[in-house]
Design a protein that fits this description.
Helix content: 25-40%
CATH class: Alpha Beta
Strand content: 15-25%
Strand order of the largest sheet: 1-2-4-3-5-6-7-8
Distance between the termini: 42 Å
Structural class: alpha/beta
Number of domains: 1
């Protein structure tokens, strides 16, 4: 495959990207209907894009934070909160982070926004969780890593579940993915978790779908090795029958390999 195809996960997915986006929206809308006022929109910053969708179970309940993907240029927290009701039903608080999309802002600023959202959860909400697990899919996994395992100031995140991420951004410089990002070589290096010192997080799950391109699988395996060398306890999971876009459905689903791994980090 060409580099462009390798970093086009839809090339080996079960369905088209628009089909999945419609599914995300429908599942998240159903979740909002179930939770009603228990799922609140709260600002973590001053820009209109800087908000969280927060479903608080109880102040001390474990907290699952999610950051959406979309190659930093698509989707929102509103379309990626589908796990909130399932998490809430299992005694888990849930927060979905929204951020400004490229090309309206830079990737460096998106990282700052996500770190700011996590800091808000730590300092300004009424949550006092004993365990806080951050998760993200694709570009969201990159951002989740930048908030936790590649964030030397992290003191809040106790576990991470990273799904089908891009952790070394340098290959993207030679693809159309970089068109809205306009990353330079130096910026790609500075913003690549794979190229940063590891900030040890006790437990990390690095997962990907069975039906992914070799480059996406390699990105995950290489980052898992980097984390292990940096002192993290890492579980690697290739989720059978899932692809880049539907692997997230299992995030908190009991009796699935991914769901059980996530719930173990939150509930043990």
């Amino acid at each position: 495959m060409s580099l462009e195809t390798e970093y086009s996960p839809s090339s080996v997915a079960h369905h088209s990207v628009p089909w999945y986006i419609e599914q995300y929206g429908a599942k998240s809308s159903a979740t909002r209907n179930v939770l009603g006022e228990n799922l609140r929109k709260v600002a973590y910053g001053t820009h209109e894009d800087e908000y969280l969708l927060l479903a608080q179970h109880s102040p001390e309940a474990p907290l699952l934070v999610f950051i959406h993907g979309g190659y930093w240029k698509a989707l929102s927290a509103d379309e990626c909160c589908m796990w909130a009701s399932d998490a809430h039903a299992q005694g888990i608080s849930f927060a979905s982070i929204n951020y400004t999309l490229a090309p309206q802002t830079t990737l460096a600023h998106i990282v700052q926004q996500c770190r700011g959202a996590v800091h808000w959860l730590e300092k300004h909400s009424q949550l006092t969780p004993q365990r806080t697990v951050i998760s993200g899919s694709s570009a969201g996994a990159h951002l989740a890593a930048m908030c936790s395992t590649a964030n030397p100031s992290n003191s809040f995140i106790t576990g991470a579940v990273l799904l089908s991420g891009v952790y070394d951004l340098r290959p993207l410089l030679h693809t159309t993915v970089n068109d809205p990002l306009q990353l330079t070589q130096d910026e790609a290096i500075d913003l690549s978790p794979q190229l940063q010192a590891v900030s040890p997080v006790a437990e990390v799950v690095v997962a990907w779908g069975e039906h992914e391109t070799n480059s996406f699988k390699d990105q995950s395996r290489n980052y898992a090795e980097h984390l292990t060398a940096g002192g993290c306890n890492v579980a690697q999971i290739e989720v059978e029958e899932r692809d880049h876009f539907d692997v997230i459905y299992d995030l908190v689903t009991p009796a699935t390999s991914l769901g059980d791994a996530t719930l173990q980090l939150l509930l043990r």
